[in-house]
Amino acid sequence: MGAFWTDPCAKCEEMLQPFLDRELTDDERAEAEKHLVRCDYCGRRYRFEEHLRRYVRQATIEEMAPELKQKLAALRIPL
Amino acid sequence: MSEATPETDARRLAERARDRVRFEEDALSLSDQVYRVARRLVRTREEAEDLMQEAYARAFRNWQAFTPGTNMRAWLLRIMTNLNIDRGRRDQRTPDTTPLEEGDYFLYNKLEEAVGPPADEERVVERLSQDNVVTALAEVPHDFRDAVVLVDIGEFSYGEAAQILDVPIGTVMSRLHRGRRILKHKLAETATVES
Fold first, then answer.
1. Which of A9, B40, B91, B103 has the fewest C-beta atoms lying within 10 Å of its C-beta?
2. Which of B90, B75, B7 is nearest to B41 (CA)?
3. Domain B106-194 in this protein, CATH class
4. Where are the domains of chain A?
């Protein structure tokens, strides 16, 4: 595990997922934010990751066929 | 203690029937959302449709096992992931042998390398087609994919995903982090091939 004072961009890369998932401690988050304010390289990659997550969610949507909905309703147990 | 009379029995039966109808209606109203997740837990539409029918049939039979007031969508997906394991899907699981030296910036770096620095990051995402994403996700090994599908597509919390998959929360987190990296690695492969 790197550290911000040795290789800040590598450390920031390690923190990307926990940062976006809001898993970091307050101190870790503050450190990452301090770096992101002045590092365009990491900032671009963080913004990309946010767009990517949204894009994955949208791109993988496949609506259910209406026939399946009817089949599910037919599985109900009669009174 | 009140004595059971034909009237109280009848009332109890009527209440039970009403609860069951309500349960079935609630479960059916969630089917679109459940399907979105189910569709990505398996590879084909047919498998997803089979899984939905088996899970709903089981849910309707065991409706009394559901605790009212808890998350029904998570409960339905718990049934579904159990069924998926029972069906032996996991026997065909390939171990995750993808060497992943790359970190979380890998995909962005590859896309930038291929087409040059972008004006904004949203345009970089658009370099990936919808098919790229669907194919790449399907190639992520099951255990990792389940975590990604539940959290990033189903929008479940780590805690809910842990309950659905019946694993500790730390396992969900590590599978999720690795699963996302594998997904990005697969996306980088397809994007690089196409560019």
1. B91
2. B90
3. mainly alpha
4. 8-74
